[in-house]
Amino acid sequence: MSLFFLFALVIGLTAIGWFTARMRAAQLRPTDGFRAHSLPSYHGWYVALWLGLPALIFLAIWAIFSPGLIEQSVLADPAAQVLPDSEIERAAILGEARALADGSLGAAFNPEAEELVPAYQQASGFYGIIGTIATLLLAFACGAFAFLRVRPDFRARNRVERVVMWVLLIASLIAILTTVGIVASLLFETIRFFDRISPIEFIFGTQWSPTSTTFSDDPGSFGAIPLFWGTILIGAIIAMIVAIPLGLMSAVYLTQYAPARVRSVMKPVLEILAGVPTVVYGYFAALTVAPAVRDFAVNVLGVSSASSESAMAAGVVMGVMIIPFVSSMADDSLAAVPSAMRDGSLAMGATNSETIKKVLIPAALPGIVGGVLLAVSRAIGETMIVVMAAGLAANLTANPFESVTTVTVQIVQLLTGDQEFDSSKTLAAFALGLVLFIVTLLLNIIALGVVKRFREAYE
Amino acid sequence: MNDATDTQAAPEAKPATDEPLVDPASLKMTARNVDVYYGDKQAIDDVSIDIGMDNVTAFIGPSGCGKSTFLRTLNRMNDTIPIARTSGQIELDGEDIYDPDMDVVQLRARVGMVFQKPNPFPKSIYENVAYGPRIHGLAGSKSELDQIVEKSLIRAGLFEEVKDRLDDSGTALSGGQQQRLCIARAIAVDPEVILMDEPCSALDPIATAKIEELIHELRGKYAIVIVTHNMQQAARVSQRTAFFHLGNLVEYGETSELFTNPHQERTKDYITGRYG
Amino acid sequence: MNATTASTDGRQPTDWKTDAMQRRIRARYRAEKRFRFYGLAAVFLSAGFLAFLLFTMVSSGARGFTQVQIALPVDFAASNIVIEPEQLDGNDREQLLALADFQGLAQESMVAAYGDDGQALFSNGAWVQLRNAVSDDPTLLNRSEVIWMPASTEIDFAARGDAGENQSEERLAMMERYQALEEAGQVRSALSWTFLTMGDSSDPTLAGIWGALKGSLFTMLVTLALAFPIGVLAAVYLEEYAPQNRWTDIIEVSINNLAAVPSIIFGLLGLAIFLNTFHLPRSAAIVGGLTLALMTMPVIVIAGRNAIKSVPPSIRDAALGVGASPVQVLTHHVLPLSLPGILTGTIIGMSRALGETAPLLLIGMRAFVPSPPDGLTDPATVLPVQIFLWSDELNPGFVEKTSAAIIVLLVFLLVMNGLAIWLRNKYEQRW
Questions:
Q1: Where, residue-wise, is CATH 1.10.3720.10 in chain C?
Q2: CA distance linking residue A121 with residue A100, whole number of Å
Q3: Closest CA to C148 of C168, C174, C123, C166
Q4: What would the pLDDT profile of A180-191 be if each residue is shown by its tens digit?
Q5: Which pTM value belongs to this model?
């Protein structure tokens, strides 16, 4: 019996349990002298939870472990003695036999796989029956236990609500689990990486050229300074040169000058910029912006070293993507400045622009700076635009028309292609990931702190 | 004025004598038939008033009576509210301030304003006072600017308290000091009229007393108009008082006269505390 | 200027009428106008960039939905395919079709119709059309029929009048060839069903978006099935029941931080945990969905908390006052009232997940997957990754396919965001 069918069966049984328990509870009520403690449907839920939960949990565990059990008994079969010793080939043949056995494959490529089919079918049939019986037994036993407790004075509601509370708590713990998972997986692989490459070399080295360990023992150089510089050049310098003036001035215009109708149209339009998938920006940067930037650099500026994959193209497009972040943070910050400031300045005879430049923006500056920090953190973590437009060459150059590479580009680069998992290259990706994680986290904490203090100052 | 209780009062909301209330020689601002609308709602209804240079004029009335709204029309601060609409005529030294040729930036430099809540800019004390002279280009040099700042602070009675910490933030001062800083800021551009919109309502009694003292000292140098909901304050600081009610100017006269012998029933009710 | 203003301190009152002062005022107004113009320019520049981007995509992508087709007369009856139409009713239909030499038949027909180099006119995989045609209508096998077949990339370029930068002789020859075909009425441009119904291919004329679309669909299903319940439950817990203690603080901080973690970090997490620790299948929709669910969940939690927070406490008090239990207050009142807000947040989170590329690259969803996935564990790719893969292709025929795929992706995002805005406007309640 397939797992899915079994799952559906348990769900069906749970529904039946809910109905019968509810009916029974409803019948109990009038015959008994006093009012039942809980509504019938709570009795129904109580039985359903007892019936369904243990069985489903068992089923989940069974689903994880039964393939291993089946495989073991197949390997114990005499037909499996002919299997090659190589782990990979063995796994391939076993996989094929499994596909043959459940009918998803029509014909075998390896003759050995064909041999294993009967053993597979036998084993999976055997464990299938065991699993089914165990699941159903568990469901019936637990369901019966709960069903017998359906009595007027039984506090079904409180029990059900306690389970609900646990479910809620577990759901929110997943957030912690994810955070722990991120930190643990990054840290674990990074420590393994630092066993091979010294942290000093990684953080302060200026030579980045990881080589494949498949062909030589030399792991290459892992000095990440060029990557850090490339990330800063694109995400924190060029992108911000584009995003800060455009975002800030857009916010100023839309909050201080634009008529209400213009504002109500243009604000969502600018927000669309944040909703465009980054891969679309990346494609646009590579296809349209990068060639234009190179032509401009070569023909107008006379920079002969301009590359078609340049920091400039990636940075400009990333800056455009960041505009809405900067403008909405600036918008909020300007709105948080008390209107008394504005009135005070206008009443002195200041023009609008003088008021904005000399009073509003300085007053809103902490909020704007916080927003810019958030935008920087967003920009340095952005991947697709730089993957598609910035290039792979780890140059340590200040020339924005040359190709540079970033932390995120290298993570993608190191982890794609056929890699064994614990080569220095793949581990380096996790070390880069850890750096990225820490830096973006710090930027966010600082930014949120700045913004919070700014808000409190005017409350 | 079709209120039944008003009929037994004197014929008009004018002093009994035919003599103009404000001496033509010291006449600074005149308003004639001013209406103000917020959207469809009329906030000021046909107000005419003269404001003299030689005196402090107080606007009193219950909250929502339009006294602050009217004050804001005098330097066109109502322009900053998109739905506000003003009609009628307001003149400053004979110039119509709502004339298209009138430059609102210059107007506001000539007619300064102090707000209900002290609103120093989040800059240093020095920068707060220097702000106006800077934007209007009143100082030719740094020393001249220093001089203006110092004079303004002296006039606002704040200099002795802050002379050693001009670089501290204006927002770090106490409420009363902040308000005097705002007055210094207004004085620094050398205005002709200073409008004060309930300048003491956010202050404690001691700070209030200081501000009132300051108003006394400034009297005569500037035409001062003060809006207050506090009748004792109006009696203390002003020489002329205008009583507003529901967007109308009910009565305008010498302060001593208005408080002791109001001509209008509504004024009497208000100052005797029957409403407001 | 009135004499009374004459300051006692000797400073002359400001004379606003002097020329210098008037000039200064005019300069200040010019500065005001300039500043205002800068603001307007910033808005228009930003919006203009968006418009330019969309225009570029639409104008180069529109052609991606069409296909140049060439008429090919095929004589099935005379071919060496010896299947009888009736045989195709049986169970071995697929096998019979797979073994028959449709490729050879196509080649013969091409040579017969268009000369020795006739094959160059057609897409390499065009012969599959013959098999599909027979599969749809087995009676074809007994007669001769004109079949419209996808043209080669070279003809495609010729149809566009694009002779290439260096105007090579081959390209020019191909253009002449195309003109001849056009005059003979043997060529047409049709809506490309291939593009909408097929999986990936290394030949741009045969590459389709359906495989990636299906992969996106599966991935989003997994994401929604996990992120929505967990996100809503966590939001409910934090907003309604969580005690004020250190654990709650830790949960809140983690959720807020997760919302700001770069997406590629989630890819590393998926790689290390789901692939290398739990050994889930590489490139599969289930892993992609799991990874994106972890990324989307914080967005739903934050939106959900805001929605729940906006339900006024008076409603809770009223329900508690008539003796409802805390869970009843939640299910009868708080959740129904906050549902529109939660759904809006969910759709926004899902649309972000739909456009996400980087984490999926790391868990192997960049593999070349020619056949659309049939299940959650099959190798799959998703729309944004497909766009990325095509953008890397050297064959210039992929340029318009990439743009066309972008249009498809943007249309989906537009629909989702439109739905979110509609929901918000329709059900948003102001208290």
A1: 210-427
A2: 9
A3: C123
A4: 999 999 999 899
A5: 0.83
